[in-house]
């Protein structure tokens, strides 16, 4: 009877330890400074990460409604973790950082800041995230087994006008200007209009000269 009880206890311990062994300590997620904002205020998205292995970089892509948010910048408090200036897409922030030396991550590797643009009931979505390590060939490679948590953050923005918060950055700011934001200024539009008008006048004069030569 004692042997059977011992066998049952051992079996129970085996089942209890299997899930623990399957868990991985590496994880990355995002949190927002608050869930309610006024128009014109600053939303700070904090990137949280935990890794038992030293990393040499990380990347996150945050989906957002371009009618509700204007991405401002991202920054990392980790020494020697530098932001990479990459092309940005409307509605998708790509914040990527890398270091020449291995870094220990157990807390906040970065912050991403947005300006709220108007009344919205919307979400921020962590589309993808990865921690990078150096592989055997010496190149950066995604760390396997990283759990991506807290993928969607619901947010409410009121139409009431607020004030932007000029809070200190954690590190050197990485600009997050979308390619589609490169719209022409009114001055540039005026200059192009004048140039276009001169071109049309030149074409008109050229046609008149050609017609006169044909008549002669």
What does the model show?
The structure is a single chain. By secondary structure, the protein is of the alpha+beta class. It has 2 helices and 13 strands; from the N terminus they run αβββββββββββββα. The strands form 2 sheets. Strands 2, 4, 6, 7, 9, 10 and 12 form a 7-stranded mixed beta sheet that branches. A hairpin with an 8-residue loop joins strand 6 (82-83) and strand 7. 20% of the residues are buried.
Using only CA atoms, what is the Rg?
Answer: 28 Å
Integer average pLDDT: 80
Number of helices: 2
Major sheet size, sense and barrel closure: 7 strands, mixed
Percent of residues in β-strands: 35-45%
Query: How much helix, percentage-wise, in residues?
Result: 10-25%
Helix/strand structural class? alpha+beta
Query: Which spans have pLDDT < 50 for at least 5 consecutive residues?
Result: 1-23, 180-185
* Number of DSSP strand runs: 13
**Morphology:** elongated
Main features:
single chain; 216 residues; alpha+beta; 7-stranded mixed sheet; 6-stranded mixed sheet; 2 helices; 43% strand; elongated; disordered N terminus
